[in-house]
Amino acid sequence: MSEGNRIAAHYSDSGMAERVLSALTGEGMDIDALSWDRLTSFDQFHTRGLPATREQAALAAPEPGEKVIDIGCGVGGPARHLAAEFHCEVSGIDLTPDYIEVADMLTERCGLSDRARFERADALDLPFCDGLFDIGWSQNVSMNVAEKTDFYAEIARVLRPGGRFVTSDVVVGPGGEPDWPLPWAREPSISFVATEDEMRAAMESAGFRIVEWRDTTDEAVNVFRNPNQQVRRGKLGVGLIAGADFAERSRNLAQGMADGAFASAIALAVKPV
To answer: Residue 224: what pLDDT?
Structure first.
């Protein structure tokens, strides 16, 4: 099995769409007329959830009508947020067919299909022409990408000159080895977490100019400890799309953050004019 297929298999879970609809119905939602902001307990599948998406959006400063590519879009939560709140045109790509199916389904039922579209694609071979997008967006994606410079170079290719790239990721911290499994890998063969220096060097090698780089580890650790985050572990929690073992994987990441095995960061970079 290729590396890409092994990564997709890690995230795949048969019956995901039916399980999501059943859970939403069980919570009394009208599944034919959903609201994007009632899905955020599970569709913001990244460290810190919706607050991190809002912070990243503030950094990107999207304007109405701007074209955004969301690389590693998952089930489309951030894309729907950008489409609904900022009136952007969002193209989401992901390796995992189950995620694309659910992203399409939820977006249509939220009435946002005219502004957010999704397709299965590889982040190292984006199916878009040069210079098409104003903003590149990714959240907790690079941990599954071995070829970091190629990853960032492909994003730069599809951005217009002066386009912005915003990303948040887990990076290697100064501590020791983490416990497995983790949210992005149940074992080390598909985990490619890099240090901050390696990430910055890869972005710059791809042609980006880094405008801002902010450590968000303390915020991440606090979120993991926050009782208000229990909703993300409940009936409409991330486990709905991430699998029955997600609670264990999330705990291991939380402990790894607290112990210093991992850190988290958010960054804004610009493609030179």
So the answer is: 81
